[in-house]
């Protein structure tokens, strides 16, 4: 009989709600309950709303509690997506996933104070988060958009995984060739919930329980899996 720690679970740590400070009014969804139902229908066990340049504690708490009503439940982690400045002056982005077992009110206040569009480089924003436990996952290869970070932006910095929507993206292939020890993840970046998963059909999976600690370990050890979906249910 398979140990529960050997069971693969699906994760999606790049989702958006109307609370996004940059484009919240453009987020298309019906309700928080409907978003959870969509995640459940797609067998997502671990998720995060990484809204643009903001973290809303009340929303995070509410979505956590709503998810408890489902069995098996969807576990949510606190997160944020930040607009950054590349070293060449262009726009770049990264998501940051936080350990929920820390002072999230303090985190909300801190994010409100520091998160401004295109104000920090990747390293500068990492420095702003030094008092928190978090995972840093820069955008490296996202379809046709150019809001990705380049090798010179992330080298010698904390990088817990590289986020892509396209495994053949030129920038991603260049970086992973030079840094084969980086973990790779692919998340949906869903803004329009009627199109879930919106920006990639790639699926990211880890073995074990849906927790921050397990996620952190699996990314560190490169024991996560990115694959194409298939017709049969997982």
From TrEMBL:
InterPro entries: Pol/histidinol_Pase-like
Source domain of life: Bacteria
Protein name, per record: Polymerase/histidinol phosphatase N-terminal domain-containing protein
């Amino acid at each position: 009989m398979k140990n529960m720690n050997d069971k693969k679970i699906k994760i999606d740590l790049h989702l958006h709600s109307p609370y996004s400070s940059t484009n919240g009014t453009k987020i298309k969804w019906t309700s928080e309950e409907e978003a959870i139902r969509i995640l459940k229908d797609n067998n997502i066990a671990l998720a995060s709303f990484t809204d643009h340049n903001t973290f809303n504690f009340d929303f995070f708490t509410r979505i956590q509690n709503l998810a408890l009503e489902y069995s098996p439940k969807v576990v949510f982690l606190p997160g944020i997506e930040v607009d950054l400045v590349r070293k060449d002056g262009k726009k770049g982005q990264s998501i940051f996933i936080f350990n929920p077992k820390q002072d999230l009110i303090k985190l909300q206040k801190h994010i409100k104070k520091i998160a401004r569009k295109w104000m920090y480089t990747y390293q500068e924003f990492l420095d702003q988060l030094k008092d928190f436990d978090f995972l840093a996952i820069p955008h490296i290869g996202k379809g046709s958009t150019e809001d990705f970070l380049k090798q010179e932006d992330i080298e010698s910095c904390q990088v817990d995984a590289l986020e892509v929507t396209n495994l053949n993206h030129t920038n991603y292939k260049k970086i992973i060739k030079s840094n084969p020890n980086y973990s790779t993840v692919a998340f949906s970046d869903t803004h329009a919930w009627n199109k879930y998963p919106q920006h990639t059909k790639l699926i990211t999976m880890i073995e074990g329980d849906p927790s921050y600690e397990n996620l952190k370990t699996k990314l560190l050890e490169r024991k996560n899996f990115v694959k194409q979906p298939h017709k049969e249910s997982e």
